[in-house]
Amino acid sequence: MTSNKKPTTLKLRLSALVFTVVIIFATLELFSQVIYQTREDIANFFHVGDLLNLSNRLDPYEMAVPGDAFHWVLRPGYSADRSAVAELKKAQGKELGAQAFSADQNETGRSVSGITVNQSGFRGEALRDLEKFPRVLMLGDSVTFGLGTETYPHVVAGELLEKNIQVEIINGGVEGYGVRNLLKEVPRYRDLSPKVVTVMIGWNDIYDENLLDELQELPIKTGWLLREAWRAAMRLSEKDRSRAIELYQRQKTPDRHAAVLEKVRSFEPRFLDEVITLIDKLQAMGARVALITLPGLYSAEVEPDATALAIGHLPAYTANPFVLAELTARYNAALREIAERPDVYLFDAAEWSREALSPRREYFLDSVHLNERGLRKLGVFFAERLQQSGALDFR
User: Fold this and answer.
1) Whose C-alpha in 6, 11, 118, 285 is 20 to 30 A from the C-alpha of 97?
2) What is the pLDDT of residues 312-365, one digit of tens each?
3) Does residue 27 fall inside a structural domain?
4) Beta strand 72-74 pairing with 62-64
């Protein structure tokens, strides 16, 4: 009798333990799902941006938006030369940004010098008379924002001026922006009454660590919550800056036959829906919209050489340059499909760059940011596309 009771008792205890673990995990997962679905409201209510010192992490030419966690804009009226900006970035531990702004590449003879933010909150000089100069708003992230020596919107403006095309080019780029950030700024864009809006966005969305869950098709959000908690702890301890350097310096392992690439080639990130929403909102303003595909350092067809591996940086979720290349190619293909919608123009910079920016290492500072030569060529291309596409035929 005693020998039969012991196995039964052990089984009951194991069953109780398994049941308890399942209940704990289910409760944690339910909690994680609720947090995920309401994350922005929770972040704003508890002023998470303030708790994590968002303002202290921004550059001097940026400022946090009150009541909107993790959203920021340019600081109206800011002005500094590029050496001052480079020093400020270096003091904040942003070594890569400091290098980009301290590099002396002035070759174009038409370069900007440092950073000036006008009173309207856009990089560049004060806006001109809307009645005399129809506006072309060029939206984007740090690629559009540009370097301390050049921006592609600045090049576009110069190219069109040489052809006596009287329009005003507005640089709507902000470092770190994703599609969601642009959506939050739509009311401000509407106030500008632009005739044309170009959209070159997506790098920060592709680099978002949460994309890993989508890529692996994981509906479970407990991992997301734990990862976000860990990232918050890193921010509070100021260790995320050193982590960024570690990610940049880690060894890359190119593998064009990696199993994950098959999944990447059919992947459709959720932020594509936000791109469509953005287009709808911009068109509702009465603007003509031009989508721009993303040219990058790495290509799905070309094995990266030693220089490309040395200067490139990858998302935290992969050490394989081909994963980034295929993700970018997939995103660009989706943009081409979206551009088939009525009254949407396509500026296919990715396709154009195959020959125009070859070899890639001579035109890129890293995986996504172009150097001055690259920005200059990109600006000339956009000026040509604006004319050839008919987007400027409102005059």
Assistant:
1) 118
2) 999 989 999 999 999 999 999 999 999 999 999 999 999 999 999 999 999 999
3) yes
4) antiparallel
